[in-house]
Write a structure and sequence with these properties.
α4 (94-106) runs antiparallel to α5. Strands 5-4-7-6 form a 4-stranded antiparallel beta sheet. The chain is of the alpha+beta class. A hairpin with a 4-residue loop joins β6 and β7. The model has no long low-confidence stretch (mean pLDDT 86). It has 7 helices and 7 strands. The radius of gyration is 34 Å and the shape is elongated.
């Protein structure tokens, strides 16, 4: 297989796998999937907020999902393995918050109240900024878009690619389809757990200057240093006294 075909095949595999897990694990806080390929086995790590529901009773559900993936993509027996990983901070996960907002709207909660609740929850989770956009027939027959935001959000450049986590969901309401887009601007984390390790370009750290020494103190230090050197040289060049031998007691 050529390199071009391999990249396309990997992309199609990831897209179909992500769609399958999104529809299957929506209520369990599904927050993304990672595929790690080794020469002998393909490991699929499913990230979710409620990993116990993903695993199921005695691991039955994760085994069923493994079997479905194996049959759909023609993997050999034991060549694919699914693992569940808990999301460290679901307030900083855009996919988890989009799913949460989706179920709030399906439950009949007012759009403004649901969106402001999500924005507040995200900002309390130490995010730098958050934006929620809801479009569709929100009230009445006329479709419109509503935008809710808080904090600091960069939308262009390298910082937007590195720091922004976004997710899109579609809610099948009775009056029509409502679209949801959640964007979270992650904080900078030196450990790389809550956000990227690299600092933002416009963050300037000012280092405090050292205390300046007065001219008199410098002159005193230099004079003391010169005096110490002269004393050391005088001690080195001083003649060493030679002791006379003691008289012999036998004569």
């Amino acid at each position: 297989m050529s390199t071009k075909r391999k990249f396309v095949a990997d992309g199609c595999f990831y897209a179909e796998l992500n769609e399958l897990l999104t529809s299957e694990l929506a209520e369990d806080g599904y927050a993304g999937v990672e595929v790690r390929t080794t020469p002998h086995r393909t490991n699929i790590i499913v990230r979710a907020t409620r990993t116990q529901n993903v695993l199921g009773e005695k691991g039955q559900r994760i085994r069923e999902l493994t079997s479905v993936v194996q049959k759909r993509f023609n993997f050999d027996e034991g060549a694919v393995e699914l693992y569940a990983e808990r999301v460290q901070n679901r307030g900083l996960c855009a996919q988890a918050q989009a799913e949460s907002l989706k179920f709030k709207l399906l439950g009949g909660l007012a759009v403004r109240r649901a969106c402001y609740g999500v924005v507040r929850f995200v900002m309390e989770a130490s995010a730098k900024g958050c934006e929620v956009i809801v479009t569709g027939k929100l009230r009445g027959q006329r479709a419109k878009a509503m935008k809710f935001g808080d904090g600091y959000l960069i939308k262009s450049g390298h910082a937007a690619e590195q720091y922004t986590d976004s997710a899109v969901r579609h809610v099948m309401m009775r009056q029509g389809v409502i679209g949801i887009r959640v964007k979270i601007f992650l904080p900078q984390d030196p450990l790389g757990v809550l956000g990227p390790k690299i600092p933002l370009d416009d963050v300037v750290t000012i280092i405090e200057p050292k205390e300046e020494v007065s001219a008199e103190t410098l002159l005193q230090q230099q004079a003391a240093k010169i005096a110490a050197q002269e004393a050391a040289m005088a001690q080195a060049t001083a003649p060493v006294p030679v002791e006379a031998p003691a008289p012999d007691a036998g004569f």
